[in-house]
Amino acid sequence: MAATPITTPHTPLFQSHAFLKPKATFPKRFSISCSSTIQDRPSLQSQSQDRVFNFAAGPATLPENVLLKAQSELYNWRGSGMSVMEMSHRGKDFRSIIEKAEADLRALLDVPEDYAVLFLQGGATTQFASVPLNLCQPDDTVDYLVTGSWGDKAFKEAKKYCNPKVVWNGKSENYVRVPSFDGLELSPNAKYLHICANETIYGVEFKNYPVPGNPNGVLVADMSSNFCSKPVDVTKFGLIYAGAQKNVGPSGVCIVIVRKDLIGNAQEITPVMLDYKIHADNNSLYNTPPCYGIYMCGLVFEDLLEQGGLKEVEKKNEKKAGVLYNAIDESKGFYRCPVEKSVRSLMNVPFTLEKSELEAEFLKEAEKEKMVQLKGHRSVGGMRASIYNAMPLAGVEKLVSFMKDFQAKHA
Ligand code: PMP
After folding, report:
1. Ligand 1 closest atom vs CA 199
2. Which of 196, 274, 288, 387 is the most buried (most CB within 10 A)?
């Protein structure tokens, strides 16, 4: 393919962000294929013609301006003469990247000084083991409130390392709600109470949080699928963990925010890879960190701050989710979301079609319109639209308009 000059249709975006201005023209062999005008934030008009609206549950869509910034820095990161992928994973340049990412995340979530922020490998699944291995001993009791299959997986993994008890399980009702906290029989001696703050598959999201039964116990939350989608009072938690690949970056990075006094009591069998103390003492650099992933997370955090922080982000997410849930609820049963209204997720919207035989056609037609990954998780079927931070309102509006047309055709 012939080299493309830097005056691509994305030029207005480069002009509107000083940081995006390339310092030099790209070398000859470098080609970019971009095909539409992009303004400050992606909108329906501005969506690149070569990109789709990706409703995947994760890895998920990333902000276009973040992708373009990464693109502009890929070849030569800030004059270092190399890409982030080529630099030392413990050298000063990467250290500056991880430190900035941490500082921006701390600013976004107002993380207090007595909490450590760790950037780890292994995804959120690894934390299902790391949490019990680091926070308790084999005989310790811990509580799990299970509102979906991720919470259930976390519970099952914990059984290998301690004595977990399920204090509530929504499985028999197909995971459609969060229980009232008053009636829960929490263990008075549990080291922690674990919740999954947003169940990605079932679309059930905690809107407030339970308090552990043990006054010395802590609340632990898997926030993989609603991390940085709204403000969160970190002080309510002893530990928060989140796989990055939904709201804040690519797969392979997992962020742990943990109160410092909980660190350093790992079980003897804990592998160094999983030991929070080793990571905390070495600024997450001890094990080979997933550098490019952390760099991408850093760009996303910077972007979220530029959007005005998580209160603003939450407003946008509420608006998007409102548009979609309203369309479902007003469809006279053609579409249906089974989740109790008070705990419907702002991030993952599962819905079924009254005429389930139309599902394959729905997906096929949507794909033709460049709306992809709308199939529900294989364990539940139906549809699921994941509308994380980076999904523009235009994407949700396009989906809703498609749903209305589809209904008109098939009602
Ligand atoms: N917890 C939740 C809530 C998730 O949605 C996922 C992944 N979809 C996981 C844990 C597992 O994450 P990973 O793939 O990073 O191990």
Report:
1. 3
2. 196
